[in-house]
Design goal:
20 helices, about 0% strand
Length: about 450
C-alpha cells in the first residue's frame, strides 16, 4: 500500500518512511522496535551561508523590495519602548488567534523568559517592535506563545496551533533569509531555539548552526547596536548550555578568552562566564598536553571573577553562582572529580547559597537552570537536596516552563545513580551530564 507522507508523524518514522500512530511522548512503532523516538515537529537542516558569488544578493545590492535597515529597527524599538499590550502598528491585519497569542507574549511570556539584572523586559523591548517587519518572527513568537498557553490552559488544540505557526515561521524564514536584515533572521532563529529548549518540542534541530551562519555572513558591524548586543548575548547563553548538555564544543564560541574586568556590567560578566563554560566543554576534545594549560587558564579566569565581581544584588549572586558551578564543571571535565570530594561539596553549597538568595521573581532566575543543575546534582546532604527540590518547584510555579519539570526529574535520577555508586564502591565517578545522555538519549534541560 502506498504511504502518504504527512507532517505530523514523529521524526523517526518520517525518516524511516513508515506510518506513525503519533503516540506521545513516544509513538507505538518506536516503542515496539526499541528506537529513539525523536519527537514531533519540523525537521530542519541549516546550510552554510552562501558564498562570495552571492554577495550582491545577500547584501541587498539590487533588489526590488527594500531591505529593512538596522536604523529602521532601532527607530521602531524606540517608538515601542514602553508597551503593555500588542502595539497598534502590530495589531493591524491580525486574526483573533494571532492577536490572542501576541497579547500573551507582550503581557506575560516575554517577561518570564527574559534574563536581565533589572526589571526591564529585554525580550519585549527588543523582539516585539521587530515583529512588525517580519512575518516569520511573528509566527515564531506565536509558536512559543501557543506552547506556553497550552501549559496554562491545558488546551491540546493549542499544540496544533503551535505546529502551524512553527511551519509558517520556518517556511517564511527560508524564503527571506537571504534578503532580510540579519537582525530579523537571527531573532527568528533564536526564538525557535528558545522555544525548542524551554518547551522541549523535540524538533531535532540545533538552531545555533543557523545562528552561526547568519552571524558570520553579516559581519561584526551589524551587531553593534542594542538589538544586536541582546541577540548575541542570547546566542552566547544558549551556546554555553547546549555545549554542556551535549558534552560538545560550543558551536559559536562567542566571547573567546575575554578576561573578567571588575568594571564590567553584570550581563557582560555573565557573558564571560558563558564563554568560559564553553571553553570547559571544549577541553574534552583537546590533547592531554593542552588540557592542563587550558585548565589552569580557566582557573585563572574564575579566580579573577571571585576577586573582582560584586556580590551585591541579584546580578552579583548570579555571577558568583555561575563561578562556583563553573569550578564544579571544570574539575569534573579536567580531573573527573566530583562529590563527595570536599572541594566539590563546598563549591556546590556556595553555588546554591548564592542562588537561594535571589528571589524567584527576579528576571535573572531565567538563567539559573544550569547552575542549580550543576551544584544540585553534586549535593549529598538531604536537607540541601530538599531545598533544591523546593526551589525548582517555585521556579516552575512562577514560569510554567516544561524544561523545569524535566530538570527536576533529571536531578532526581542523577541522585539515585550517584547514591547507588557511592554505596557500592565508596566513591563517585558519575558524570551527571553523561548519565542523562545515556539514560534519556538526550541532553539535560539546562535552559
Amino acid at each position: 500500500m502506498a504511504f502518504k507522507r504527512t507532517r505530523t508523524g514523529c521524526l523517526t518514522c518520517r525518516e524511516d518512511g513508515y506510518k506513525c500512530d503519533e503516540g506521545k511522548p513516544s509513538c507505538g512503532r518506536c516503542i515496539r522496535l526499541g528506537k529513539d523516538c525523536k519527537g514531533y515537529g519540523l525537521k530542519l537542516k541549516w546550510q552554510n551561508p552562501r558564498g562570495p558569488q552571492h554577495a550582491d544578493e545577500s547584501t541587498g545590492g539590487h533588489q526590488r523590495k527594500r531591505k529593512t535597515s538596522s536604523t529602521d529597527l532601532v527607530r521602531m524599538q524606540s517608538q515601542n519602548s514602553i508597551v503593555s499590550a500588542v502595539p497598534r502598528s502590530l495589531s493591524n491585519g491580525l486574526s483573533l488567534g494571532q492577536a490572542y497569542l501576541l497579547d500573551h507574549w507582550c503581557t506575560t511570556l516575554a517577561g518570564l523568559i527574559t534574563m536581565a539584572p533589572t526589571t526591564q523586559d529585554h525580550f519585549h523591548a527588543h523582539i516585539t517592535p521587530m515583529i512588525t517587519y517580519s512575518t516569520s518572527l511573528r509566527s515564531a513568537v506565536c509558536f512559543m506563545a501557543a506552547h506556553h498557553l497550552n501549559i496554562l490552559r491545558a488546551d491540546s488544540a493549542l499544540l496544533n496551533t503551535a505546529l502551524r505557526h512553527q511551519i509558517d515561521a520556518v517556511s517564511s524564514l527560508r524564503k527571506t533569509i537571504q534578503t532580510n536584515n540579519p537582525l530579523l533572521s537571527l531573532a527568528v532563529i533564536m526564538i525557535l531555539q528558545t522555544t525548542d529548549r524551554l518547551f522541549t518540542t523535540n524538533s531535532g534541530v540545533n538552531h545555533l548552526e543557523g545562528a552561526k551562519a547568519i552571524i558570520n555572513q553579516a559581519g561584526p558591524k551589524t551587531w553593534d547596536c542594542d538589538i544586536g548586543a541582546f541577540l548575541l548575548n542570547l546566542c552566547c547563553y544558549h551556546d554555553a548550555v547546549v555545549s554542556v548538555s551535549g558534552r560538545t564544543p560550543p558551536i559559536l564560541g562567542l566571547g573567546g578568552v575575554t578576561p573578567y574586568d571588575e568594571q564590567m556590567d553584570p550581563m557582560k560578566g555573565l557573558q564571560v562566564l558563558w564563554a568560559t563554560i564553553g571553553r570547559i566543554s571544549s577541553m574534552e576534545s583537546q590533547h592531554n598536553g593542552y588540557i592542563d594549560i587550558e585548565g589552569e587558564s580557566i582557573e585563572a579566569v574564575l579566580l579573577d571573577v571571585d576577586a573582582s565581581a560584586s556580590r551585591e544584588g541579584d546580578a552579583g549572586e548570579t555571577v558568583h553562582a555561575y563561578k562556583e558551578a563553573a569550578y564544579i564543571y571544570l574539575h569534573r571535565v579536567w580531573h573527573n572529580v566530583g562529590s563527595p570530594h570536599p572541594r566539590t561539596l563546598r563549591h556546590a553549597r556556595d553555588c546554591l547559597d548564592h542562588l537561594f538568595r535571589v528571589p524567584v521573581a527576579s528576571p535573572l532566575v531565567s538563567a539559573h537552570a544550569w547552575p542549580i543543575w550543576t551544584a544540585g546534582c553534586e549535593t549529598i546532604d538531604s536537607a540541601l537536596r530538599d531545598r533544591v527540590r523546593e526551589r525548582i518547584v517555585l521556579m516552575y510555579e512562577a514560569r510554567h516552563l516544561p524544561s523545569l519539570k524535566r530538570l527536576a526529574q533529571d536531578i532526581e535520577d542523577v541522585w539515585k545513580i550517584k547514591d547507588e555508586e557511592r554505596g557500592a564502591t565508596g566513591v563517585d565517578k558519575v558524570d551527571c551530564v553523561r548519565a542523562i545522555l545515556a539514560m534519556r538519549k538526550r541532553g539535560a534541560d539546562l535552559v
